[in-house]
Amino acid sequence: MVRLLYFIFFAFIFSCTIIEDSDITSQEELDNLRFVSIEIKQDTNTGSSTAVAKVTTDSVVDILLTTPSFTGTLTRTLWMDWPALGSSSKLKLKSGVTTTFKSYASFLESGKPWTFYLFDNDSTVSDQVRFRYDVNERLNRIISIPYLDYLDTLRDELIYDASGNLTSIERKCNSNPSKAGTFTFGGQNNNVGFTFQGMRYENACQGDGCGSNWGGNYHVLGADNFPTGVMNLTTFQREYLSMQDFNSINQSNCGSTGCDAWIDTFYFHPLMLLKDQLEIGDDLLFIYMVDWWQPVSAQESTNNEKVTFSFDYDL
Amino acid sequence: MTFRSFISVVMLSCFFGGATYAQLKLPTFDVELKIQQNLTPGDGQNDGDIEFVETTNFYGGAHVQINQHIALGGFYSRSFRGEGRIHYDQDNSIDKEVLQLQKGIDVRFSTSRAKKWRKYVSINYTQVEMVQVNEGYRLADKSNAVGFNLGIMCKLSNNLYLNVIELGVKLMSDYIFWFGSENNGIIDAKMGVTYNIGKRK
Q1: Which chain A positions have a beta carbon within 8 Å of B88's beta carbon?
Q2: CB-count exposure of residue B195 (10 Å: 0-12, 13-18, 19+)
């Protein structure tokens, strides 16, 4: 009898598990997580505010795509309603729209994004970003179309080496050559970074062998090697994305002249939502700082300001 | 053969074999209760990669003693606390609650009964489950593992031993999918007591 109880005891404990049916148990399930809303919290010098962007329609579709270089199927479309990002908002739309707006995104069967639209509250398209792929479904072009300034369409070609590593991006802008250029990768002082149009964007290393990091984990430097913008960018496993305008610059880094703080503007960019759907999404979010992060004016060092996206998922 | 059916076959063999053996010699088995500290190191090189996971578990086990040197049994160990440190933002990190469950079978080889100290080594086959609790969802994965432990116990009475320290290593057959690295080892330390039930040789 004792041995029978012994057996029953073991049978019981071996059937126990801490894994629940609702748990995410594979990378594929994690990739297919669908968020239902985003809480947008803004902490600025004028106070804090919280607003929510909600998914209104998340549809399964079956649309065959055929382009000269790519054949695939759109399987999902996502519509969202966004709160007004007013004129005093830290996060803005590049189109200048300050009222509520909508977004539309379509996705390939693999979950990778295909097209992203922003609509004004009167349903006029204001911005479009196209993600395009080669025959192996590797992202090779990102086309950004500002509809209010259509001639400034940016056509970025992503260039990879034989090992599949992104080595550079070439940006073309047919009607406005001043916006064109090449993203050349490589940082200084052990920083990770790239140079675009004479400005060096770096993800600062910290510790021995690193140069000045100016306090934030990302900065952009001019030719004089002094920052024209410092920020903290943090993102964590699809839970949140935080962009902090780092304005409390360590004055000892800038010699006798002291450091200016650049009061930045953050422009909404689809990669803030879609980066996790791309294999190099985190890298691209960094690289596309050139489009969504705009240090705009120098002033005395002051308080930091922050915009945080907290993603809420439906399991 | 699934893990559960494999375990069933092993345990049935163990118990029926043990029962037969017991008619001839010693119907003796033991139960053990321990506190287990686990550490699973990770690379932690890139944002989102695990730097380490550590959990503290309640550990329970039982063995049928084939003879005074060899015991065959199983164990169950579940965390009551734990955290995973995840790298992000260069040298920064974030801590997340982690749960861990270990269950499996083991064979323990021990030295002869002595007045005070008794050393032992055990080889185990374990199923490891890990769960990371994020704000909006939980990540979960499991893997089989093999490992061994070295320990020493101190005799407190005819039936009761104090497991002074037991150190072990396990190697998982699969990587935990969200770890972001190919580290698959678990090291652990245990302390507790073992109680013998049944006749003494």
Answers
A1: 234-236
A2: middle
Cβ-defined contact of B140 to A206 (cutoff 8 Å): no
Q: What's the rounded Cα separation, in Å, for the pair B173 and B146?
A: 8
Residue B20 distance to chain A (closest CA, Å): 12
51-80 in chain B: CB under 8 A from chain A: 60, 62, 64, 74, 76, 78
Q: Is A23 on the interface with B (CB under 8 A)?
A: yes
Count the alpha carbons within 13 Å of B38 in the hemisphere toward its beta carbon: 30
Of B19, B64, B140, the CB nearest to A19: B140
- Cβ separation of B140 and A204 shorter than 8 Å? no
Global model pTM greater than 0.80: no
How far apart CA A112 and CA A65 sit, in angstroms, is 14
Long-range CB contacts (within 8 A, 24+) of B9-15: B10/B105, B11/A7, B11/A10, B11/A11, B11/B74, B11/B105, B12/A7, B14/B64, B14/B72, B14/B73, B15/A3, B15/A6, B15/A7, B15/B64
- Its ipTM equals 0.80
CA-to-CA distance for A306 and A233, rounded, in angstroms?
10
In tens digits, what is the pLDDT along chain B, a chain of 201 residues? 444 555 555 555 545 444 444 444 444 889 999 999 999 998 877 777 888 999 999 999 999 888 889 999 999 999 999 999 988 765 677 888 999 999 999 999 998 777 789 999 999 999 999 999 987 789 999 999 999 999 999 999 888 999 999 999 999 999 898 887 777 899 999 999 999 887 654
Torsions phi, psi of A281, nearest 5?
-60, -40
